[in-house]
C-alpha cells in the first residue's frame, strides 16, 4: 500500500507503513523480472549467423559474450531465487534450452503458481524445509552432480545460484553423513559463526561445493554461472559455498582454524574429523577457461532502490553501509549511539566546530563498522538542511545472532526489538520524536519463521512494554513471539519473495 504524501508521518502506523513500502521497493528491484528484463543480465543475440549469449549487458559496457551456436543448453539451479531465475532464462533461451534440474525450497512451486511459469523442460525438486538440508535436497544434489558429469563439448551448462543454495545442494564427502554435517553446522551457528565461516566449513566437508560441481562438468563447452549474492562483499567462492568457483584454496586448513576458534575441537563427529584432517593435495590451480561466473544481483542494488524510494517520500536518504556485519546486540548499540550523537548535534549551532565534533563522534561509534565513505558528510549535510520531513538511514548486509535460548525468531526481528528497546530505555532518545526502525530479509524468510522481519516505533514499543517484559523475549531468542503476540502490525510478512540479497535496515528520524 502506498501512503499519500500528505498523510506521511502523522502517526506511528503511517511511519511504519512508509518504512515497509521502502523495504518492499528494495525487494522489487532485485526480483527476477526486473533483473532480466530491465537490467538485461542475460541476452541472446543472432549475429552473422551465430548465436551469442551476453551476460550483464545492461550493467557494464563490456558484457561477457559466449558463442553457443549449434550447442545444446542445459540448466541446473539451487537456491531461494532460482525458480524465478530459471523462468527468465528459459524464456530467453527458448528451444535452445533442452533440459535441467532445479533444487528449490519446499513450497516454492505452490507459492509462485500462476505468477511464474516454466515450460516443462526443467525438473523442479523441492527440499530443505525450514532452510535446513534434508534427504530430498541430498537426493537432488546427487542427481545434479550425475547430470553434470554426462555433459560434453556439445553442451552448454547454465548454473543458477542464489542464497539458500548450500542447504539445497548438500552432498557431504564420505564418510560424513548428512546428519553429521548438520550437527557441526548447528554447533557453529550456536557459537555465532558468520555465513562466511559456515560456508568455509561446508566446502571443506563437501563433494560438490568449492568448485567441485564445475570440475565435474569440465567437459562441457561452456559453464555459465549466474549468481544472486547473499553474502557481504559478493565472494563468489562462498555464495552457496561456491560450487562452480574452482581454486586451490585449502578449505580444510581454513575450516580447522574455524573449529579451533570456536573451541569445538574434540566435539566433532569422527567422520568430520577424518575429512578435515585428510591429506590436502596442494595442486596447481585447475585452469578452466570454459568456466564463467557472473554476479547479476547483490545487496547494493536493493540499498540503492531503498534510498531512491525514501527520497520520493521527501526524506533525506543516506546510506550507512552496504556491507553490514557483526552481532545483533553490538549493532543495536551502534544504532543507539549514532542517534544519541545526532540528538546532541541538533541542540547545537551548525558551525564548523560542532560539525567536527559530530564527525569525531561518528568515527568513534562506527570504527568497527564498514561504513560508506560519504556517510558522515552526507549526515552532516542532511542535519544542516532539515528541509525535508525526516532523515532516513539505510544499510544492507547480514548480521549474526548468538543463540542463548530455545525461542523462535530471526536476526531481523531480534535486531528491531534490540534497537527499539535500547531507544526506549534512554530518555534522551525520546527528545528525537517518533523514531522508527526496520530490519527485514529480502528473501522474505527470517530464521525458521513466517516473517521477513519487523518494523516498529518508540511509541509502539512503549505501549507493548507495559504488557510484557522485553528482556524475556531477547534473552531466549524469542522475538517472533513478541511481534506476533504484542506488536503484530510491526511484523513484516511477505512469504518467499523469490529473491535473496541479504537484509535491509532502515532507521527513521523525524524532523518535525
Overview of the structural elements:
With 512 residues, this protein is an alpha/beta fold. It contains 19 helices and 15 strands. The protein has helices at residues 12-29, 32-38, 82-93, 108-111, 135-149, 165-168, 178-190, 195-204, 212-216, 251-261, 270-276, 299-312, 328-346, 352-365, 375-385, 411-424, 458-465, 470-475, 479-486; strands at 42-47, 50-55, 64-67, 72-78, 97-105, 122-127, 155-161, 222-228, 291-297, 316-324, 390-397, 436-441, 453-457, 491-492, 503-510. The strands form 3 sheets. The protein has a 6-stranded parallel β-sheet with strand order 6-5-4-7-8-9, with helices on both faces. The chain has a 6-stranded mixed β-sheet with strand order 10-11-15-12-13-14, with helices on both faces. Strands 1-2-3 form a 3-stranded antiparallel β-sheet. Helix 3 (82-93) links the parallel strand 4 and strand 5 (97-105). Helix 7 runs antiparallel to helix 8 (195-204). The radius of gyration is 24 Å and the shape is globular. It starts with 11 loop residues before the first helix and ends with a strand. The relative contact order is 0.13.
